[in-house]
Prior knowledge:
Blueprint: E1 2-11, E2 14-15, H1 17-20, E3 29-32, E4 40-43, H2 51-57, H3 67-80, E5 91-97, H4 102-115, H5 132-141, E6 147-151, H6 155-170, E7 175-182, H7 186-194, E8 209-216, E9 224-227, E10 232-233, H8 237-249, H9 267-273, H10 291-302, E11 310-316, E12 321-328
Helix pairs in contact: 2-3, 3-5
Amino acid sequence: MLFVCGTGAVSPAGIGVDCLLRKDPWPRSSLGLITVPDEIYPVFQVGKTNEALKKWQREPRLRRASPISLYLAEAAAQALEPIRPFDPNRIGIVAAYSTGSLVYTQRFYFDIVRKGQGAASPALFPETVYNSPTSHLANLFGISGPCYSIVGDESAWVEAFRVADVWLQEGDLDHVLVVGAEEVDSAIMETYAAARWLRGGSGFIPSEGAGAVLLGRTAGDKKRIGAYPESHSYRGRKSALQAAQNLIQGFDPKSPVFGTGQGSWIERIEEDLIDARKNLNEFPYCGQAFTASAAWHTIRALSLLEKVAAIDLPIWGLNQAFSGLRLKGS
């Protein structure tokens, strides 16, 4: 297991981990579909006027960057703060994404669809690439260690920890920054609607933001975290049930669980599987932000290690695989 040396968060609840740990319900806004703008659904969105984000927008490299890059920069800065000054050659970055830079991708392709290929913007195109926010992050903090971007559903967050573990075991790095970030716009709302995740009564609310966990080989705040060795993939509801059972059966039966299924189609399955175990998640619903909400769940669960010795954290990938993290206190 690896030591947790720092954490950071940008969420609709506000800037910083303290906001993430509050027990107040998150403020909601609304967003429509591309095809049916009047069809409005609730969303959790990050306040774009926050001074912390404005500061990053003044960075020359981020002036034309998608909001996801601003979220990443702020969350990473918070997580790196405990080890400043640091050797940038001894730090790596593993970033996990699901949808990536949606806002600028939509702008880029909409111009082409409406006006033709001649409208393709060379300024916007680089921001449509999944690795772009990771590149911005490395440049902003001068990090010259290895940098990876992993793309998947929520389970990509756990895969990022597995990569970080390998890097730190090799001994060439002192720390690895694991980050997850997403942004929400009308394009992803269209996708959620097509998947029938937004239908009435589902409780599903799209969300956006970023979370960061700084890992090290030596003690930070003496909290430790590690990925369970296997993710359980699935292709339909029947195999998803079996995959969920396999995941929970692999958890320590003596440890409480931090449930993360709220608001998704996996919620009822999770409730049935962890019924006999204590569910420690009493935080307000944070919505669905794929790797970002997986990061928030991780940070929230880490905050509870002063009360319990260990926590099992299921990470339910909503369209690919189920995975989990094991958290331990000092």
